[in-house]
Structures are given as C-alpha cells and as structure tokens.
Amino acid sequence: MDAFQHINHARMVTLLEEARVPLLFEEGLPTATLRDGAVIADLHVRYRGQLRHDDSPLDVLMWVEQIRAVDFTLAYEVRPGGAAASTPPSIVASTQIAAFDISTQRLRRLAESERGYLEQLKRG
Q1: Which InterPro entries does this UniProt record tie to the protein (predicted)?
Q2: Where does residue 65 rank: exposed (0-12), middle (13-18), buried (19+ CB within 10 A)?
C-alpha cells in the first residue's frame, strides 16, 4: 500500500503481470512461444475503487479483448478476494501485447496456433 492506504500502482502492474503469465506462458500452451519474444505495447490501469491488504488474495478476471495480426489486447477486472462477479471491479486494466522476433528485432505475425488459443479466451 502507498501512503494513502491504496495499493501502490507499480505493485498493481506487477500483480497484473503475475496473473497473465500462467494464462499465456505456461509450458504446453500454444502461446508459450511468446516467452521467446513479446513486448508490452500499451498498458492502461483505471482505479475505480480502493483495494486494501485485507482484500487479499485478489480475484483477477482476464479475457482477450482484441486480436490483430501482430498483437492482442488482454483485459482485466480486479476485485477483492471472494467478491461476487456482480461486484463492480476495483481495477479495470488492459495490456496490448505484441509478438516480437528477438533475432530480427521486429514485430512478427501471431502464429495460427497462438491466434486459435487467444480466440478461445475472448469474452462471450
């Protein structure tokens, strides 16, 4: 928490990262290939309510919002642990993640297997 009794912004960004790693990068997932080259192209975090240490562990709902040729946008809603899904989220965030070829230092197109998995993560 910061001096104002809110979750620190840098820590929230880290928590979002920790939530997306198992969703995207675990061994055996089609998107595990992105471990070898992916960059965060954009990040938005909107604070709509206060979160305190007592709210832990936090619940993080994630889904793919958009898929394009070289990137996709992952959306998040963060709520206090155990809060009902109907509870307004305290944090609404998104990250735009681009596939990147380290050897050429250029963006690359998402592979069909990556796209297929990401399509499964789209909301409704």
Answers
A1: HotDog_dom_sf
A2: middle
Cβ atoms of 31 and 25 within 8 Å: the answer is yes
Whether residue 30 is preceded by a cis peptide bond, meaning omega within 30 degrees of 0, is no
96 vs 75: CA distance, rounded Å: 9
H-helix or E-strand spanning residue 120: helix 112-120
Tell me which DSSP letter residue 36 carries: G
- Classify residue 38 by its DSSP letter: E
92 token code pair: 């609404």
CATH 1.10.10.10 assigned to 9-121: no
Burial class (CB in 10 A: 0-12, 13-18, 19+), 76: buried
CA distance 110 to 99: 6
Q: Cβ of 86: how many Cβ atoms within 10 Å?
A: 6
Phi and psi at residue 100, in whole multiples of 5°? -135, 135
Token couple for 8: 């620190």
